[in-house]
Amino acid sequence: MNETFVTNWKSQVKKGTLTFIILNVLKNHEYYGYELIEQIRKHTEIEIAEGTLYPLMNRLKTEELVTSKWVEQETGIPRKYYSLTEAGIETLSQMNIYWENLEKSIKKIIQ
Amino acid sequence: MNETFVTNWKSQVKKGTLTFIILNVLKNHEYYGYELIEQIRKHTEIEIAEGTLYPLMNRLKTEELVTSKWVEQETGIPRKYYSLTEAGIETLSQMNIYWENLEKSIKKIIQ
DNA sequence: ACAAAATACATAGTATAACAAAGTATATGG
DNA sequence: CCATATACTTTGTTATACTATGTATTTTGT
């Protein structure tokens, strides 16, 4: 049927929610990029392309909402770990307020 | 602080959610464009620019998820009323399933 | 031992949709 | 009569998810 429309819509819904999800995941825990993708896939069924995540993380760094540090591994490729900055925590709390409102509004409309 | 980031983020969150909201609002009731903006503003605090809504409605018409009909007024400018098509109802039900999942996932992450 | 898959990061190009801004036209209130 | 509200439309800009591709290392399969 209208497969493409729904598929496309899902992609559009991700715009914005992805940022929100990433920041929330980093709230309690440091993660490296690849791990973020895995964690979110496991816990939420949301698939994030690598080509989506890494540019997103760089935007968040430019905005100074997250910082990153390279961590060498005993074996394997070094990993870039991300964590929230103070500004990131503050911004996230504003986003949480908006989301809660939005979610309530939508719930009211769907009912 | 990072005003622009949050503002911008809100705009991104609307991508997708707006379509979803509009279709859900039209599920139980016919509305004309201007009325949709007002209804949603009153009931949800979500602001929709006219330059956002009308192109969106045209997309939904092109996708054949909604139909429209002009209704002449005794006084004032004619109104274009929108209603869901069968395909629109079907598509919306798929979207509702995805949204419910997403919402649960995000709730789990935020907790 | 070698190929394939998984891990880990990065970038370029494309498509989509929200928004600001401007325009058209009618009606109403001060 | 002028500003504001109603009602729809179009143009150009911007942000971001995605596909595709590339690099490099490690693990797994046969």
UniProtKB/TrEMBL annotation, chains A, B:
Transcription regulator PadR N-terminal domain sequence ranges: 22-93
Top-rank lineage group of the source organism: Bacteria
InterPro entries per record: Metal_resp_DNA-bind_regulator, Tscrpt_reg_PadR_N, WH-like_DNA-bd_sf, WH_DNA-bd_sf
PANTHER family, A to Z: PADR-FAMILY TRANSCRIPTIONAL REGULATOR, TRANSCRIPTIONAL REGULATOR RV3488
Protein name per its UniProtKB record: PadR family transcriptional regulator
Organism listed in the record: Flavobacterium azizsancarii
